[in-house]
Design a protein that fits this description.
The complex is a heterodimer.
Chain A: E1 9-12, H1 21-37, H2 39-45, E2 58-66, E3 71-76, E4 79-85, E5 96-102, E6 105-113, E7 128-129, E8 135-136, E9 165-167, E10 178-182, E11 189-194, E12 199-205, E13 215-218, E14 223-227, E15 237-241, E16 248-250, E17 266-267, E18 274-281, E19 284-291, E20 299-300, E21 316-321, E22 324-330, E23 334-341, E24 349-355, E25 367-368, E26 374-380, E27 385-391, E28 398-406, E29 408-409, E30 417-418, E31 420-425, E32 431-438, H3 439-442, E33 449-456, E34 461-466, E35 482-484, E36 488-491, E37 494-501, E38 512-519
Parallel strand pairs in A: 4-6
Antiparallel strand pairs in A: 2-3, 2-5, 3-4, 5-6, 7-38, 8-38, 9-10, 10-11, 11-12, 13-14, 14-15, 15-16, 17-18, 18-19, 19-20, 21-22, 22-23, 23-24, 25-26, 26-27, 27-28, 29-30, 31-32, 32-33, 33-34, 35-37, 36-37, 37-38
Chain B: E1 2-6, E2 29-31, E3 33-35, E4 41-43, E5 47-49, E6 60-67, E7 72-78, E8 83-87, H1 95-99, E9 104-105, E10 116-125, E11 129-137, E12 145-151, E13 156-162, E14 188-192, E15 197-199, E16 210-213, E17 219-223, E18 229-233, E19 238-240, E20 251-255, E21 260-265, E22 282-288, E23 291-300, E24 313-323, E25 330-337, E26 345-351, E27 354-359, E28 367-373, H2 377-382, E29 387-394, E30 411-414, E31 419-423, E32 429-432, E33 437-439, E34 456-460, E35 463-468, E36 471-480, E37 485-492, E38 503-508, E39 511-516, E40 519-523, H3 529-532, E41 537-538, E42 541-542, E43 545-548, E44 552-553, E45 559-572, E46 578-585, E47 596-604, E48 608-614, E49 619-620, E50 622-630, E51 633-647
Antiparallel strand pairs in B: 1-51, 2-43, 3-4, 4-51, 5-40, 6-7, 7-8, 8-9, 10-11, 11-12, 12-13, 14-21, 15-20, 16-19, 16-21, 17-18, 17-20, 22-23, 23-24, 24-25, 26-27, 27-28, 28-29, 30-31, 31-32, 32-33, 34-35, 35-36, 36-37, 38-39, 39-40, 41-42, 43-50, 44-50, 45-48, 45-49, 45-51, 46-47, 46-50
The chains are: A mainly beta, B mainly beta.
C-alpha cells in the first residue's frame, strides 16, 4: 500500500481560537489570577499596610491618651499596646479603637465605640475586598469607563454618580453579575463584562444622552435605564432592553424653565422603580411619572400623588433609595418632606417641614438613608472637614455631623484637592464615603493621591479601603484625576463601585478604571 | 475461501480507480445516500415541491426565507423579477401538503430581475417595534430595496421599500459631539402642517440655514410670504440653502400631506450626521454588531459632484458600507475595503463575533479578511474605538462575477462546525474557522479544477450542500470534539431528470429548499416519521440510489483472485425499499470499460435483508460491485467471497 493521506475530511471546529472570546477569557482569568495572587494579597494581608485588615488588626480599649501628641495606650485582651492616633477623632479613655501594626508600631485607624456617647454602629475593622477585584475594566477589549465626573461633588452638576450598572441577577439577559458601562469617557457605546463567564461585549451605541454625567441602572424587568441629569431642561429617560435595536426615550412634557427644572429621574435600587415628575404652571400642578418593573415603557401616573406643587422656587426635588421615594417641596423658606414607598403608586404623606436655612435646597447629591431621611455631604470650611447634613423626614429636624475627614488633601505639591466626592447609606446604617485621599489620610508617607472608601457611623470614620497600587502622583492641577463612583449595595453589607485614575499623558502611575467590591460593611 | 466485509461508510466517496488509492472505509459511489448517524449511510431525504407546478406563473429562479413571529416564510424571486411569498410548510408535512402550499405575489413590488437576497435584518418599524425582515436588493438597476417581514399584530406579510440609495452626509444641526463647543443657538424644532408657517424664531442672517425634515412626509420651504418654493425636502432628508437670510426675512415651511417634524438651524459640529431612510445598493450583506453590512456597493467617483451626476457612480465591489444603529441610516464615509480594486466581495459572514469577508482574488492580499472590533463611524473617526482588519488568507477566493443577474452563494456559514465555507476559483471548496484555512476536498469527489458562476454552497445542520460542476455533493459531518476536529465524509445527491438544474439552496426551518425546473422544492432534512416514508423520492416518485464499492484487489497486485460471490446486507426502513440491480465488475467501479456481470433483482427488501449472488466475473486482478436501491433503507455491509486463483502471470512478471 502506498502511504495514504487522511481518508476522511478533517474540519477544525470554529470559531477561531486565537483572540477568540475563549482566548480572551483565558487571558482575563490569568490576569485576574495574578491580581488575586499579588495585589489583593498585598492589600488585604500585608501587615505593613494600615487598612486595618488582615490578621494584625486588633480591637482595643483606650487606657491612656495624650491629646497633644495624639499618642496613648490601649488594652487588647489584657495586653497593653502603645499607639499613635491616626484618626481625626480625639480619643478618650474607654473608647473602643481599631489598632493596626505598621513596622512594629501600632496605630489607631478607627474608633468603634465612644465612651459616654451613644453607642454607634460598630465600624468594620476593614472591608474585605472580594476575590477577583480590583477588576480593571478599562483594559478590556471592550472597555468600561465612567463619565468624566464620576463622583458627585466635583463639577457643576451630577445626578447620582452611578456610572455603572451592576446587574447582579442577570436581569438584562447577558448573564448574572454583569457590569455595564460606557466605552470611554466620551461615551459612544455601552459595553459589558459578565464576571462568571468573563464575557466582554460591546452591546450597542450610547444613547443620545450626552455621555457625561449620566447614571445607569438595570431594573428587574431587564431594562437598562440611563438617566438624564436633574438640572436638564429636557429630563428624558433613555431605556432599552437587551433585545431592542435602539434606545427608547420618554419625555414627560410640561413646562421647563427657571428653577422649576430639577426634574431628573431618580431610581430606587430596592424596588426597581424609577420616578420623575412634570408640572404645569398655569394652573400650578405636578404629575408624577414612573417606570416600574413589569412596565415596558415609562408612563405618567396621571396623578400628583398628593403633592401640592409650590408656586415658589425652586419647586420639587426627588430622592429615592432603600425603598423610599422622598419629595422635597420647597417654598421660599421651607422644605416640606413628602414620603412614600418607592415601589407603588400610593400617594405621598407629608411628614414634616424644615427651614431652608438649615438644609440645602440644591441638594444635588442627596441620598436616602435606610430610615427614609435625606442626607448630603459638604466641605465645612470652618472645621476643614467634610460634614454630613441630615434631614430627618419624620420630624423635619436637621442634624449636622462632622465626619472628621479632612476636607482637603495634598499630594505634596497641591494642597487644595477636595477629599470626599460621594456618599451612600448601607442597609446596616453606615455612611459610606468615597473620594480621593492623600498619604496622611490613609496613613502612608507616599506623596500620592489614592481613591478611598471610608465608613462613618455618625461618630467617627474609618478608612476601610484604599489600594497602595492605585494612586495618582502628578501635581497637575486639572482635577479630578482620581474619582470614585457612588457605591451600590449589591448585597447586604457588600458594596460595589468604580474608581478612575486619569492619566493626562505625563504620569507613570496606574491609570484606568477599576471595579472594586467590598464586603463586611 | 476467504471473505472481505466492507461495513464502514465513514470514509465517504473517494473517486479513484486503483485499489491502493482507497482506504477500507471509502467507497467509489454513494449516490442518493447521506450519513444518517455517525456510522450509518441511509438513502437521501424526501424531496417535495412547494406549491403546484404553475403556482408561480413565470417560474422561480431563487428561493429565500425568513422567520416571522408566527411562521417561517418562503420568498421566491421569479424569472421575471417578481416577488412571491408563501408560508413554509411544517417540517412534518407530506408531499401532498407541500404541493398544496399557496404562493402569493407581492404585487406592490415592481419586478426587478436584478433582485437578490441580501440578509435578514433587524428592522425597526413604526407601531411594530423591531421585526426580522428579509432584505432584497441589488447593486444595479433602479428598483427599490425591499424588506419583507411579518406584521405580528395581524400575522400578515408586509414590506418596506427604499428608493434612496445614496448615503449623502447630512448636516449636523443640533448636537455637537462630546468635546465640541456649541457655538451658536440650537435649532428650532416644530411641526409642519399643510399650511405655510413662518418660522419667525429663526433669524440667523450670518450663516446658511439648513432645514431637516425628521418626519415621514415631504416638506416644502420658501422664504417670505410671497416667495416661490425653494425646494421640496424628502422624508428624513435635509436641505442647506446657499443664500443667507437677510434682515426681516423668515423661512416658511409646509408639508405636502399630513404633518412632519422639522428642524431649522445652522450647521454645527465637525462631523456630519448619517443619512436616514437610505439603502445603498449592494449585492451581499449581513448583520454584525447591530450594523447592517452591505458589500459590493456603489460609490461616487467625485464626491464634489452629486451622485446622480453623469458617470459619477462607480461600482466598488471590494467595498462595504456599515450602517448606524438603524439599518437604513448610513454615512458615506462609513465604508471599508475588503479587497483590492479589482476584487469583489462575494460573501460577508459573522463567525462568532467576527466579520469575515470573502472576496475574489485579484491580487495576493485579496481573499479572506477578518474584522474585529466595533464599527461606529464617529468613534472610529475619534479614535475611541478600533477595528482590526486582518488578511486571513490572500490569493484564494471565489471567481469574480460582475454580471448583474444571478443569486450568488459561493460562501456560507456552517454553524454546526463553526466555520465559513467558500468555493475558490478553481473548483475547490474551502473552510475557515477564523484562523485556519484549508480545503474540504482533499479526499472525496474528483475536483473538476474549474468553477462556474452557478456553483454554490449551503448548509443545514451537519450537512454541507455543494453544487459543483453540475454535481450535487453532500459533506456529512460526523463526530468531533468542539475546539478540536470533526471528521466528515462526502456523498452525493441524486435528482430526477430536469430541464433547469437544481440551484439556490437555502435553509428554512429544518428543510433545505431549492429551485429546480422553475419550481421550489425542499429536502425534508429534519427527521420525522412522515417525510421518512418519502425518502429517496421526489413528490413520492422514486429515484434510484447507487452504491459502489471501492476497487478490491489482492495485496499482490499481479495476482488474479477468484471473486465468486458478492452480497449486501441492508435494512429496509419506513417505505417499501427495493434492491434493483447488481453489477459486479472486473475492475474499478468508475471504469466504464471493464467486463461486468449484472443481475436485476427488483425485489422488496425485508426489514433486515441480505442478498448473495454469484460474482460472475471469474478470476480477475481487481473487482468492484455497484448496486442500485429505491426507497428508505440503511446500508449495513457489502461482502465478497473469494478463493485464491491462479497466478495470472509467471513469477517474472512477463505475460507469457
Amino acid at each position: 500500500m502506498v502511504a495514504m493521506r487522511s481518508d476522511q475530511v478533517k474540519i477544525s471546529f470554529g470559531p477561531a481560537r486565537y483572540d477568540s472570546p475563549k482566548a480572551i477569557r483565558k487571558q482575563i482569568e490569568d490576569s485576574k489570577q495574578e491580581t488575586q495572587e499579588s495585589t489583593i494579597q498585598e492589600i488585604v494581608n500585608n501587615p505593613t499596610l494600615n487598612i486595618g485588615g488582615g490578621s494584625e488588626s486588633k480591637l482595643g480599649v483606650v487606657t491612656s491618651y495624650i491629646p497633644s501628641s495624639r499618642t496613648g495606650s490601649a488594652d487588647v485582651d489584657g495586653v497593653n499596646y502603645d499607639f499613635t492616633n491616626t484618626t481625626g477623632t480625639a480619643l478618650d479613655i474607654g473608647d473602643g479603637v481599631i489598632l493596626s501594626e505598621i513596622d512594629g508600631e501600632y496605630y489607631v485607624v478607627g474608633v468603634t465605640e465612644r465612651v459616654g456617647e451613644i453607642t454607634p454602629i460598630p465600624l468594620p475593622a476593614a472591608a474585605a475586598i472580594s476575590p477577583d477585584f480590583p477588576l480593571n475594566t478599562s483594559s478590556l477589549i471592550f472597555p468600561i469607563f465612567p463619565n468624566r465626573d464620576t463622583g458627585r461633588l466635583l463639577g457643576a452638576r451630577t445626578n447620582t454618580g452611578r456610572n455603572f450598572a451592576f446587574d447582579q441577577y442577570g436581569y438584562f439577559g447577558i448573564g448574572v453579575d454583569s457590569i455595564i458601562g460606557q466605552n470611554s469617557q466620551t461615551a459612544t457605546a455601552i459595553n459589558s463584562f459578565t464576571r462568571p463567564t468573563s464575557t466582554n461585549a460591546s452591546l450597542f451605541p450610547q444613547s443620545a444622552l450626552a455621555g457625561t454625567e449620566s447614571s445607569m441602572f438595570v431594573n428587574p424587568s431587564g431594562y437598562l435605564l440611563q438617566l438624564v441629569t436633574g438640572l436638564s431642561s429636557a429630563p428624558v429617560l433613555y431605556y432599552r432592553n437587551q433585545a431592542a435595536a435602539s434606545w427608547s426615550t420618554y419625555s414627560m412634557g410640561g413646562s421647563v424653565g427657571g428653577f422649576f427644572t430639577d426634574r431628573g429621574w431618580v431610581y430606587d435600587d430596592y424596588s426597581g422603580w424609577a420616578w420623575s415628575y412634570s408640572f404645569t404652571t398655569s394652573p400650578t400642578a405636578v404629575t408624577f411619572h414612573k417606570f416600574a418593573p413589569g412596565d415596558t415603557t415609562p408612563a405618567s401616573t396621571g396623578s400628583n400623588l398628593g403633592v401640592t406643587y409650590p408656586t415658589a422656587t425652586p419647586g420639587v426635588r426627588l430622592f429615592a433609595g432603600h425603598g423610599y421615594l422622598v419629595a422635597h417641596v420647597f417654598s421660599a423658606t421651607t422644605i416640606s418632606t413628602y414620603i412614600k414607598a418607592a415601589g407603588d403608586t400610593t400617594s405621598f404623606t407629608l411628614l414634616s417641614t424644615a427651614a431652608t436655612s438649615s438644609f440645602s435646597t440644591n441638594t444635588q447629591n442627596g441620598e436616602v438613608s435606610p430610615n427614609g431621611d435625606v442626607t448630603y455631604i459638604y466641605e465645612n470650611l470652618g472645621t476643614g472637614t467634610f460634614h454630613l447634613r441630615y434631614l430627618e423626614s419624620a420630624t423635619g429636624t436637621t442634624y449636622d455631623y462632622d465626619m472628621n475627614i479632612a476636607g482637603r488633601v495634598t499630594n505634596g505639591t497641591l494642597t487644595n484637592l477636595p477629599s470626599c466626592q460621594t456618599h451612600m447609606h448601607t442597609s446596616s446604617g453606615l455612611v459610606i464615603v468615597g473620594g480621593q485621599a492623600d498619604g496622611t489620610l490613609v496613613g502612608t508617607a507616599d506623596p500620592y493621591i489614592f481613591p478611598f472608601i471610608a465608613a462613618y457611623n455618625y461618630v467617627s470614620p474609618t478608612i476601610v479601603w484604599h489600594d497602595p497600587a492605585l494612586y495618582y502622583a502628578s501635581n497637575n492641577t486639572v482635577a479630578p484625576q482620581v474619582a470614585v463612583s457612588t457605591p451600590v449595595e449589591v448585597a447586604t453589607g457588600t458594596i460595589r463601585f468604580g474608581t478612575n485614575i486619569t492619566d493626562l499623558g505625563t504620569g507613570v502611575w496606574p491609570t484606568g478604571t477599576y471595579m472594586i467590591e467590598l464586603t463586611g460593611l | 475461501m476467504q471473505r472481505v466485509d466492507i461495513s464502514d461508510f465513514t470514509g465517504g466517496i473517494n473517486e479513484q480507480l486503483a485499489a491502493d488509492n482507497f482506504s477500507e472505509r471509502q467507497w467509489a459511489k454513494l449516490k442518493g445516500f447521506v450519513m444518517d448517524t455517525d456510522l450509518t449511510m441511509r438513502t437521501q431525504w424526501a424531496a417535495q415541491s412547494i406549491g403546484g407546478s404553475t403556482a408561480i406563473t413565470d417560474g422561480v429562479k431563487a428561493i429565500g426565507g425568513f422567520t416571522g413571529s408566527s411562521n417561517s416564510y418562503l420568498v421566491a424571486i421569479s424569472n421575471s423579477g417578481k416577488l412571491w411569498w408563501a408560508i413554509a410548510p411544517v417540517d412534518t408535512a407530506n408531499y401532498t401538503v407541500s404541493n398544496a402550499v399557496t404562493w402569493t405575489e407581492l404585487t406592490t413590488i415592481t419586478a426587478n430581475t436584478d433582485y437578490r437576497f441580501i440578509t435578514e435584518v433587524l428592522l425597526p418599524v413604526d407601531t411594530l417595534g423591531e421585526v426580522n425582515a428579509l432584505l432584497l436588493h441589488s447593486v444595479s438597476g433602479t428598483a427599490p430595496a425591499v424588506a419583507i417581514y411579518e406584521n405580528d399584530l395581524t400575522s400578515s406579510i408586509a414590506t418596506k421599500t427604499w428608493d434612496r440609495f445614496y448615503p449623502v452626509d447630512q448636516p449636523n444641526l443640533i448636537d455637537p459631539l462630546p468635546g465640541e463647543v456649541k457655538t451658536t443657538s440650537t435649532a428650532t424644532t416644530f411641526t409642519a402642517t399643510t399650511s405655510w408657517q413662518s418660522i419667525s424664531t429663526f433669524t440667523d442672517t450670518a450663516n446658511f440655514f439648513t432645514v431637516a425634515n425628521d418626519g415621514a412626509n415631504s416638506v416644502e420651504i420658501k422664504i417670505t410670504t410671497g416667495g416661490a418654493t425653494i425646494t421640496t425636502i424628502a422624508p428624513f432628508d435635509s436641505y442647506t440653502h446657499t443664500v443667507k437670510l437677510t434682515a426681516g426675512q423668515t423661512v416658511f415651511v409646509r408639508t405636502l400631506t399630513g404633518t412632519s417634524t422639522v428642524r431649522i438651524g445652522v450647521l454645527l459640529g465637525s462631523y456630519p450626521l448619517e443619512r436616514r431612510n437610505v439603502m445603498p445598493r449592494a449585492n451581499v450583506g449581513t448583520m454584525w454588531r447591530n450594523r447592517l453590512i452591505l458589500g459590493d456597493v456603489n460609490t461616487r467617483r467625485d464626491t464634489t459632484l452629486a451622485w446622480e451626476a453623469t458617470n459619477n457612480i462607480q461600482r466598488s465591489p471590494y467595498s462595504f458600507f456599515y450602517s448606524e444603529d438603524n439599518p437604513d441610516a448610513f454615512h458615506e464615509q462609513a465604508i471599508l475595503f475588503a479587497g483590492s480594486g479589482e476584487s469583489q466581495i462575494i460573501g460577508l459572514h459573522v463567525l462568532d463575533d467576527y466579520l469575515i469577508s470573502i472576496s475574489s482574488a485579484a491580487i495576493e492580499s485579496d481573499g479572506l479578511r477578518t474584522f474585529k472590533g466595533t464599527l461606529d463611524y464617529l468613534s472610529l473617526q475619534q479614535g475611541s474605538v478600533t477595528i482590526n482588519i486582518n488578511v486571513l488568507r490572500g490569493g484564494i477566493g471565489p471567481a469574480r462575477d460582475l454580471t448583474a443577474s444571478g443569486m450568488r452563494t459561493a460562501s456560507c456559514i456552517w454553524s454546526e462546525a463553526g466555520v465559513v465555507v467558500f468555493l475558490d476559483g478553481l473548483g475547490g471548496v474551502w473552510y475557515t474557522d477564523g484562523v485556519q484555512v484549508d480545503r474540504l476536498d482533499h479526499v472525496g469527489p474528483l475536483n473538476p479544477d474549474v468553477t462556474t458562476a452557478t456553483d454554490e454552497v449551503a448548509t443545514i445542520g451537519r450537512y454541507l450542500f455543494m453544487k459543483r460542476n453540475g454535481r450535487y455533493l453532500i459533506l456529512n459531518m460526523m463526530g468531533g470534539t468542539p475546539g478540536q476536529e470533526a471528521v466528515a465524509a462526502w456523498s452525493e445527491l441524486v435528482f430526477p431528470s430536469y430541464t433547469i438544474a437544481p440551484k439556490s439552496f437555502h435553509q428554512v426551518g429544518a428543510s433545505m429548499y431549492f429551485v429546480m425546473d422553475n419550481r421550489v422544492y425542499r429536502f425534508c432534512v429534519g427527521r420525522n416519521s412522515q417525510s421518512d416514508t418519502e425518502r429517496l423520492t421526489f413528490d413520492n416518485v422514486a429515484v434510484d440510489a447507487t452504491v459502489a464499492t471501492r476497487t478490491l484487489a489482492d495485496t499482490n497486485q499481479h495476482q488474479k483472485v477468484n471473486w465468486f460471490r458478492y452480497g449486501m446486507r441492508t435494512r429496509g426502513r419506513a417505505n417499501t425499499a427495493q434492491v434493483r440491480t447488481v453489477v459486479v465488475k472486473a475492475g474499478p467501479a468508475l471504469d466504464t470499460s471493464v467486463f461486468s456481470y449484472s443481475k436485476t433483482l427488483n425485489r422488496n427488501l425485508v426489514d433486515r435483508d441480505e442478498f448473495v449472488l454469484p460474482a460472475g466475473i471469474g478470476s480477475t486482478v481487481e473487482t468492484s460491485a455497484e448496486v442500485t436501491f429505491r426507497g428508505d433503507l440503511q446500508l449495513e455491509s457489502a461482502t465478497y467471497w473469494l478463493t485464491g486463483g491462479k497466478m495470472s502471470r509467471p513469477g517474472d512478471g512477463s505475460d507469457a
